[in-house]
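Worked example 2:
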Amino acid sequence: MRGKMKAENRTAYAPNARTYAVWGAPKSGKTTFACRLANAFSCTPDPATGETMSAVVVCADNDTPVLPTLFPHRMKGEGKEGEQLPSLGELLSMPDMTEEDLLEHLVTGKENDRLGYLGYAQYEHPLSYPSPSFRTLSRFSDLLLSVADVIVYDLPSSLSDPLSQYAVRHCDKVFRLLAPDIPSAVWETSKKEMYAHEPDDGNALRMEDQIPCAGSPDRNSDRLLSDFRQSVTSLKFALPYRPEWKAAFEEGSLAFLKPGKKEIDYLLKAAGTKI
């Protein structure tokens, strides 16, 4: 993916991290934020090379696969016998995974050749493939960084799979999204209690090292946000409600929806947020 496209006339941005994890409460806008963040990076020049940065989104949820939602028009035929999207599970099951294997499993589009997606396919579930080992996940992480400048992991709320557990502990930055509602507040307090008891062995999930922020999954979010800020946690930033994001998600066009300059500036500012 590197070196394919020359930088356009945009302000160069040097990312202070290369791997980002987007985690959070159910229905808080995790996938939308992950997609928009990766799109922003993939439209921005790297000042060191002058070339537009490349990005990969890893959709780690194997319980409710995300790829069929992002690319509903890519699947042909009916049922399991129809043409399916390439599977992240198949990739992670390869005994000697290579860079070529990874590139073959990327879902890309003519809209943006600096951006690709990995994830599980329709009909797949947590028992479809054997659990990848730590060694496999470490190899996978290294390969990702060899083909793209920025990696964004879209993680499920449960963190119930090995890839999500690996990403949330090893990414340079972790964003924890919350919707401004009671279920998110309950989720937040539950997870804080749960991970407070992990052994401090150098690999513990430390929520205090994450960046809490508010997603805006619907048009009521902005109105509820001020009360939510005071009652739950100290939020670093809040994503605005964007009806075009919601419409694109529902239409299956969010993955490569081209961001405007204001959106890019806002998202890259969010990406630079310090803990």
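Residues 134-147 form the longest helix (14 residues). The domain at 19-254 is CATH 3.40.50.300 (Rossmann fold).
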